[in-house]
Structure prediction request, 403 residues.
Amino acid sequence: MLAPMAVPARELQPCAAPPVGDDCRLSYIIAGAAFAALFSEWKILQRKDLGIAVIGSGRIGTLRAVMAAAHPAVKFLAVSDRDPQRAEKLAARVGAQLHTSDNLAAISHPDVNAVIVSTIELEHTLPIMQALELGKPVLVEKPLALDLAEADKLIAAVAKTRGDLRVGFSRRYKDRYLLAKEQIVQGRLGRITSAAARVYNSRSQALQTLKRLPENSSVSGLTYYIDVMNWLLAGNPAVEVFARGQGSVLKNTGYNTNDVTWAIVTFADGAVVNFGVCYALPQHYPSLGHAARVEVIGTEGVMILDDDHTDQLMYTNVGVPHVYIPDHTVNMVFLGSGTPGDWALGEFQGPVASESRAWLDYLSTGRACVLATPEDARRALEISLAIERSLKTGAAVKLPLTT
Prediction:
């Protein structure tokens, strides 16, 4: 509880005459407004204690657990993984009170009141459903699901349980995209008429993903930027998708996926957005994650967001470890290019760190956050699936998709 406010002695002196009539009413209004402001501030500063279960102790689950362990509202932390040794190792690192290979045991623990699902994409649904049925808020890594039927099942579960589900599209918490959203909210670009977003990455990253998801599409890395564009063009749904792609580098490694995909997406008011993705750059390309560029054109302005990280270049004979790929180092590196963020002086910094803190603040204080809703995630998924369908058929695909 907040300590009582100190009041200067001069404010304790009696009035020469009590206020009457309109003066009296005005005094009550001023006093009431001051009390309301103080009470509002008191409510914000009151924190709800949190008990967090992190389901999945891999690379991103580890980052989520690190951020949860450091948050002042988190009083209990459980970690789970199908590999019990990995869960035990993470628990020792972050000081978790519980580690287990039983996801439900972590989710249903009485000291847990919120859940982070950081499993592989194919295993999202069950822990989300279990947490929602127990009335516990959930943060799940993108994508929400791999098909629309599964996404609709989860959205229906949120409605049935009156639950709280957010999806981790971490680009929303990268400073440049937050600033871009602010400019659009302030009306500085006018009506958005067109935009472009492209993301490049090394084939090393693609092969790491394909090892766990052999059928993974080249479009999966683009999903972050589809969500960004949907967010920037909020209230303006996509209505048509046309895509082209080609590949040889990744296909020569045995995976049936394109190296490059480009898509034109038309939105309801006629705005046109060009999306591009290539996860086939050379193995030791200096970027340790997304190398992106986003452009937005409106009737009153234009924004160009250079997210290639080429402004911070280092070469070292010692080598720099990749934030995502085990046993992978590069000699030349674009500093700050790790997709989730980067370690600096013992602290993890970047979009996943900011996103994790924002979600924990939201739960503990009620502070608003901009994490994607399941409906947002479904819209991004639908566009991704439409791109894949257009690649296969060679034709434009209308939205919403029909099964």
